[in-house]
């Protein structure tokens, strides 16, 4: 049998090459696994083994930075980006170390380079903002902030960052925000109960255009909650065109905000509040309150805040109807001051069964009082049969100013 020596040599060489490649692949994969999972010992031998892996050098730089050794960190970050010029995290860390060492201009140049490479990538916008603050590059902060807000990314954090960076100066924040983000800033201020700053933003918004009704009514409600009566009233009336009481006949849904009717939904089923389109005094709807006899309830869960002039006399008129309201403590309408004490008036108590009645209450607004609360009330009973049952209807509330004469009111 004739042996082909060339064939044998070729096969041997092929086998050796494949074994070498296989061994190299296993060794490389072992190193890659170490890099991927970050299983570093930070030893001298390890540095030599992993010197060709950018992420390993980056990790080594982070370790040196944590050890408060910026010079060593800078060297490793430099090695990382020299092997991968698009390693943005490495560039940003390098810029940070350069700034720490004192090479501000070099740090600024590196940051500018990363910005040019990531114009349409949001991942690095936030760390770029943090670094820009350290380097005094305000335009980078404002540009990146508007980018994040436009794309709905880290909105709350971004607004917090801007507000803090500019010393809580709302005018300064407004000057660097794009117009489309002013309502976002207003919402942020409302969430943090920053009333005075919010007024600055609202004035800027209204100077540019008419804000949308939804944000305007939410803002009016916010101001009312913080007892900025005049400002909230102006906004509410501008968008609703309402003077006096809002939704006085319950002809529209109760929104539960601002100067509209508010009510609390009962979780335990002691009562139920609803609009009904029958059994009305006037118009198509009335408000009905059902008491279920499950609790000796202290009821104060239906109310509306109204605005009025201080030291002026008013008359509130409303209609009511009842069916089977039990206990010695029925329901009644009361009026009390919202932003000042010194006002409290109560209508007749409603018990038993009665057809529609119309009632008028006159009251005088104390000095400095710009708003009052009209509320349906029931006090707890001290009797054994104290759990109230029955149904009450309310309709057609009207508020009218009838003078400024306190003396005639007291008579």
Gyration radius from CA atoms, angstroms: 36 Å
Assign the CATH superfamily of one domain.
Galactose-binding domain-like
The helical percent reads 40-55%
Overall structural class, as computed from helix and strand content, comes to alpha+beta
The dominant shape is elongated
**CATH architecture label name of one domain:** Sandwich
What is the number of strand segments?
10
Biggest β-sheet: strands ordered side by side in the sheet: 1-4-9-6-7
For the biggest sheet, the summary is: 5 strands, antiparallel
H and E string? HHHHHHHHHHHHHHEEEEEEEEEEH
Strand content: 15-25%
Report how far the terminal alpha carbons are from each other: 139 Å
Question: How much is the average pLDDT?
Answer: 90
The DSSP helix count reads 15
Q: Low-confidence spans: pLDDT under 50, at least 5 residues?
A: none
Looking at the structure, the CATH topology of one domain is: Jelly Rolls
CATH C-level name of one domain: Mainly Beta
């Amino acid at each position: 049998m004739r042996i082909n020596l060339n064939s044998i040599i070729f096969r041997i060489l092929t086998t050796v090459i494949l074994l070498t490649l296989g061994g190299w692949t296993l060794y490389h994969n072992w190193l890659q696994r170490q890099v991927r999972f970050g299983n570093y010992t930070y030893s001298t031998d390890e540095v030599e083994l992993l010197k060709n892996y950018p992420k390993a050098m980056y990790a080594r730089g982070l370790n040196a930075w944590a050890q408060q050794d910026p010079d060593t960190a800078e060297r490793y970050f430099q090695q990382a980006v020299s092997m991968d010029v698009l390693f943005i995290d490495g560039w940003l860390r390098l810029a940070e170390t350069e700034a720490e060492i004192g090479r501000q201009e070099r740090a600024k140049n590196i940051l500018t380079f990363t910005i040019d490479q990531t114009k349409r990538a949001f991942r690095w916008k936030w760390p770029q903002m943090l670094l820009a603050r350290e380097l005094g590059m305000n335009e980078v902060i404002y540009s990146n902030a508007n980018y994040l807000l436009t794309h709905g990314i880290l909105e709350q954090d971004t607004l917090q960052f801007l507000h803090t960076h500019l010393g809580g100066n709302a005018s300064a924040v407004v000057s660097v925000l794009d117009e489309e983000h002013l309502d976002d800033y207003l919402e942020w201020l409302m969430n943090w109960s920053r009333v005075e700053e919010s007024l600055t933003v609202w004035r800027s918004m209204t100077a540019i255009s008419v804000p949308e009704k939804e944000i305007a009514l939410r803002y009016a409600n916010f101001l009312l909650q913080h007892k900025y009566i005049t400002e909230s009233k102006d906004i509410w009336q501008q968008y609703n065109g309402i003077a006096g009481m809002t939704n006085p006949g319950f002809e529209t849904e109760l929104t539960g905000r601002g100067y509209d009717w508010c009510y609390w939904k009962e979780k335990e089923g002691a009562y139920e509040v609803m609009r009904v389109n029958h059994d009305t005094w006037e118009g198509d709807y009335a408000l009905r309150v059902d008491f279920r006899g499950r609790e000796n309830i202290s009821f104060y869960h239906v109310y509306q805040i109204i605005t009025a002039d201080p030291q002026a006399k008013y008359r509130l008129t409303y209609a009511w109807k009842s069916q089977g309201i039990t206990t010695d403590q029925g329901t009644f309408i009361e009026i009390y001051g919202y932003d000042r004490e010194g006002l409290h008036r109560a209508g007749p108590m409603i018990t038993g069964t009665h057809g529609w009645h119309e009632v008028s209450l006159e009251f005088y607004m104390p000095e400095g009082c710009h708003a009052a609360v009209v509320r349906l009330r029931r006090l707890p009973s001290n009797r054994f049969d104290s759990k109230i049952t029955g149904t009450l209807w309310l309709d057609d509330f009207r508020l009218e100013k009838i003078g400024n004469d306190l003396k005639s009111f007291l008579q």
